[in-house]
Structures are given as C-alpha cells and as structure tokens.
C-alpha cells in the first residue's frame, strides 16, 4: 500500500533549467560590468555552468554545499579570466561571493512552478503523506510549497545523494514507514527511477520533454512502475498502481 509520495524538485515540480539559465545570464552581465574586456565579452552562461560542473567533479564527495560549489564555480571562471587578462585574486574571491549571492537571488525570485504542480499536490495531500527528496537546494518555502511536505530531504544536508539507497532510508526513518510504502516521482532515469527501485520503492517517471518512452540510464535495467508526461495524470497513475497491488495481494 502506498502511504508516502515523494517528489524530486528540479524539472519535476519546477522548471529549474529555465531559472538557472536566466540567473546565469544575469551573472554574466555582472561579470562584464565588474571585469570589462575581451574575456567577459565572449563569456556565455554555458561557460559558467561548465566551470561549476568541473568544480563539482573535482570535489565530488568532498564539498556537499551547493552554495559553496557555486561560489567555487564562479571563482574558476574568474581565475580563467585572470590567466588571460590579469587581475587581483583577492578581489576576485570577493567578487565570486557577490556573484553567487546574485545568482541565488535571481534563481529564486521566480518559483517557476509547472502549471500542473499545485493542482496535483492539492489532489494528493489528503490521501498520501507528501515529501520532497532532492539532490538540489531549492527550499519549498521559497517557491510556495512548504505547506504540502511532511518530509523534506536534501542530499547536501545528509552527505548522501540519489541514487544511493542511504538517502531513501533517511526518508523512511523520518516518516516511520518501510520502503514498500514509498513512491518517488521524478524525471531522472538514474537518480529517481533506478535509485528508487534499488531502494525497494515504487517509481513514477515524469517525461516533461517527450512522449513517455523510457530509456534506462546506461548500465541500468530498472524501469519505472508508471510513466506520466504531466503531474495531472499522477493521481490516476497512483490509483492504478494501488489497484494492481491489491489484485496481486500486496
């Protein structure tokens, strides 16, 4: 019997890719103002995201704070700028902190909730215990969703991330339920689908960009228990899973 329905955040409940891109575009403009020149003129938001990704790989398992990683990512961009055009390292350390604060301000000023998010949560809140299980850092209170979630678990707070079974067990302990009572809704074939299935949970994959054809993550053979292309279809999908379990005598 499904008791707890957990949601991934980014690209499941809100359009993180859009707000991240818009925030990075704003940061590029600030770098051009603070450090004008050929390097910053050629800079694009994708360059900032690549620098952040490189830092994330370098510090994987060492630095869990996404805010700190964002500062270090901007610091890497500014170091590349100094390597080409020179500059003051101490001033750039301070600038990286300012850019990070600006990034999060721009990122979170728009909740960017998908139109189906609130109606879905409203439909489920009286029937299931709801939660947020995320490798990201967007607080539900920042996007107007705090009232819906009994459990909110972020990877950075526990130093364990999806698809590791450990982060699913944290939710189970918080809610006092077993894995067979839990279901995760998310968009990522590895983190959300394979991770949930390996933890003994049910998994619903949301495919917001396609037609619902699921391709497992390379090296994985786990498949979701249900597929939706909109959260509007989730209540019916949950009812169908419950009915199937009842027929099987689960």
Task: Provide a descriptive summary of the structure in words.
There is one protein chain. By secondary structure, this protein is an alpha/beta fold. The protein has helices at 16-34, 38-42, 45-58, 66-85, 89-108, 117-124, 155-158, 165-175, 189-198, 234-247, and strands at residues 4-7, 129-134, 151-154, 182-186, 202-206, 226-228. Helix 1 packs across helix 3 (45-58). The model has no long low-confidence stretch (mean pLDDT 96).
Task: Characterize this entry briefly.
This protein has 250 residues and is of the alpha/beta class.
Beta-strand proportion = 5-15%
Task: Compute the average pLDDT.
Answer: 96
Distance between the termini: 7 Å
Shape from CA axes? elongated
Secondary-structure element string = EHHHHHHEEHHEHEEH
Structural class: alpha/beta
Beta-strand segment tally: 6
Strand arrangement, major sheet: 3-2-1-4-5-6
Unreliable runs: none
- Counted by DSSP, the helix tally is 10
Biggest sheet character: 6 strands, parallel
Helix content: 40-55%
Question: What gyration radius follows from the Cα positions, in whole Å?
Answer: 20 Å
Keywords:
single chain, 250 residues, alpha/beta, 6-stranded parallel beta sheet, 10 helices, 6 strands, elongated
Which SSEs are present, and which pair or pack?
Elements: E1 4-7, H1 16-34, H2 38-42, H3 45-58, H4 66-85, H5 89-108, H6 117-124, E2 129-134, E3 151-154, H7 155-158, H8 165-175, E4 182-186, H9 189-198, E5 202-206, E6 226-228, H10 234-247
Parallel strand pairs: 1-2, 1-4, 2-3, 4-5, 5-6
Helix pairs in contact: 1-3, 1-5, 3-4, 4-5
């Amino acid at each position: 019997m499904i008791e707890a329905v957990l949601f991934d955040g980014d690209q499941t409940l809100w359009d993180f890719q859009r707000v991240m891109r818009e925030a990075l575009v704003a940061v590029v403009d600030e770098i051009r103002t603070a450090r004008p020149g050929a390097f910053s003129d050629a800079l694009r938001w994708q360059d900032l995201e690549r620098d952040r990704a490189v830092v994330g790989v370098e510090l994987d398992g060492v630095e869990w704070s996404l805010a700190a990683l964002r500062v270090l990512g901007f610091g890497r961009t500014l170091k590349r700028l100094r390597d080409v055009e020179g500059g003051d390292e101490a001033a750039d350390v301070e600038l990286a902190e300012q850019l990070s604060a600006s990034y999060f301000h721009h990122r979170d000023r728009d909740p960017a909730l998908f139109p189906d998010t609130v109606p879905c949560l409203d439909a489920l809140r009286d029937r299931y215990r709801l939660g947020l299980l995320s490798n990201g850092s967007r607080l539900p209170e920042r996007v107007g969703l705090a009232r819906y979630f009994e459990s909110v678990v972020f990877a950075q707070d526990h130093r364990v991330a999806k698809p590791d079974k450990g982060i699913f067990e944290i939710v189970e302990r918080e809610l006092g339920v077993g894995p067979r009572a839990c279901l995760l809704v998310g968009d990522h074939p590895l983190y959300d689908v394979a991770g949930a299935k390996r933890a003994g949970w049910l998994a619903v994959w949301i495919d917001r960009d396609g037609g619902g054809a699921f391709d497992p993550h390379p090296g994985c053979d786990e498949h979701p228990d249900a597929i939706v292309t909109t959260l509007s279809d989730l209540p019916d999908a949950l009812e169908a899973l419950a009915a199937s379990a009842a027929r099987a005598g689960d």
